Each structure stands twice: as structure tokens, then as C-alpha cells.
Fold:
Amino acid sequence: MIHVSQLLVLLFRMDALSNVTGISAVAIPEQKVVDGQTFPLVLTPSADGKSRDIESWCQWVRDNVPVLREALLMYGAVLFRGFPIKEASEFDAFVKSFGYEAFPYVGGAAPRKVIVGDVFTANEAPPSELIPYHHEMAQSPSFPKVLFFNCDVAPPSGGETPLVLSNATYRTMQEKEPGFVERLEKEGVCYTRVLPDGDDPLSPIGRGWQSTYLTDDKETAEAKARAQGTKFEWLPNGCMKTTTKVLPGVRVDGRTGKKTWFNSIIAAYLGWKDSRNDPTKAVTFPNGEPMSVEVMKTLEKVLDDLSVRCKWEKGDVMMVDNRQALHARRSFVPPRRILACLCEDV
Ligand code: FE2
Structure:
């Protein structure tokens, strides 16, 4: 729950949005205050905006793009709640109104289906699977800058998409594990994953090499892997074992100057687990040394303590700055359907 004084800070920071009619910033119980800043920002139609249709809201977004982008930079994530977004095509139109380029999902790990336009299903891993914290595609040399999630079917229980501010994660890990963080910053990490021959919907990292590289041709897949600096090996069963080049474990966000926990360490260590992959070997230092079990336990706890878990409501759109915030998925009781759009930005 946020306090009145914190809400005043929130409203003060909403100055830029105060000239924007039709919306209000509201408080929800799950929000947290990090460094004096509310996380995430929650916007909802105000009384005079409630009768607007989706077309009108798309125009509203187009009219207010600079302010909305500024809000995303300032807060790290913005939840749009109570807007009339009932189906995937409306979500697609809403996202397109922000004017970002769509980001092609090449090299990602999750099995996904295209629904309409640039809308995918979010990771379709089984309901019991927890998807650990990650920046989207942090294990790839190029990654989407802005993510949009839309709740099409809210689960009866669980299934939140928890968010954590990455700079807060970095700072807390530096306090608790300074030696590890120093090495991570100096050396970076590599990720190893065995991609199945064809998608495996039973695995949270079951994207086959064909849909990972958008081809059925091995040589084309190899060329795309090479272009990303990824080493590969074909296994006798047709699977493709890939190891990334050395990737940074900590990055400076050039827009804010803040250091961020921009990596997929915990995602790989906990989540890259299926019949083909051993998660304890999925992320290593460049010399092949695995992550320390103790440090990984600390990291898990730090992320959990800092996380915000907004309960999904039908029609919600969560806009996430992928350079500033990590996200995860909690296990759930079905049905649940969360849609996603990945976007490029400068
Ligand atoms: Fe993700």
C-alpha cells in the first residue's frame, strides 16, 4: 500500500501528465516505492475519459507520445488499467499508437504464437512452471527496448508478471555480494542452451532452432547464429547446442547513467531446465566456471524482496522499459492468457 505522502510525490511527478486530459494516476496495493519513486506508475481513465472507445484512446496515445515515453523512462513501467482493450487486435492498435518499431523475436528462448499483427502469446510454458526474472532477451546481443503485456484472460489464481527495478537489484547485490559483482562486471557471462529440433511446448525454453532463427535450413540458422557471435554444435538427435559470445552481466543505461542487472543469470540458472538442458551449466563465466550456489540463493531472495506483483485484470496493458526493469512469471491456475508485443526504440 502506498502512503498519502508518497502519492503526493507521485502526483507531483505527474506534472508532465497533468495537461493530459482523460486519465488519472492511481494507487494500487501492490505498488512499491523505490528511491522515492512509485513503481510502477498506474494510469486509468478518469471520469471524463470513461466513455471513450479504443479508437479514441489510440488517438490519445498518439497525441501524448512524448509525455508517455517520458513517464516510462521516469518510472520504468506503466500499467494502463481500465482502458477498453478487449481483444488482441485492439491491443495491437494501442501498442502501434506509441510509434515504436516492432522487434523481431529472433534468438529468444520461449515458444510463442503470433496472434495478430505484432502480437504474440507470452511464454506458453506450462502453468506450474515459474519463469524466473529476466530482461527480455538479455542473452542476445540485440534485445527489445520496450515490452507490452496485455491481459486477455486473467487467471483465477497466481500468474502475475512480477517486475523488479534493475538498478535496485544491482545496488543490493553489490552490497551483499561485492566480490561476485566485481567479477561479473569485469568478465561478463556466457549462456549455453540446447535448442530442440522443432518447438517443444512442454519446455519453458522449448523454442526449436527453426523458429529461433526463423528458418528450416541449417545453413541459414548457422549464419544467423554466427552473425550474433554464437558458437554452435549440431547434436546427433538434430538439436542445436549454442553458446553465446561473452555478454555483459551489468550494463550502464546510457539514458540515466545507472548501472543495471542486465543479464539472464537467474533465468538461465533456475529456468533453463528440460530434457536437453542442465540449468546449472546454462550460465557460466567466460572460463566455463558455473555460478556459485550461495550467490544464486542470495540473488533469488534479493529479486523476490524487491519485486512488485500486480494481479492481472482483464484488459490491463503493462508497458515495461526492458532496459530498466526485469520481469518474471509466477505459476498459475488456468485459464490465463497474456499477450505480448516487443518493440524497438532508439
Ligand atoms: Fe520474458
Remarks:
- The mean pLDDT is 90.
- Residues 134, 136, 327 surround fe (ii) ion (CB under 6 Å).
- The first strand starts at residue 23 and ends at 25.
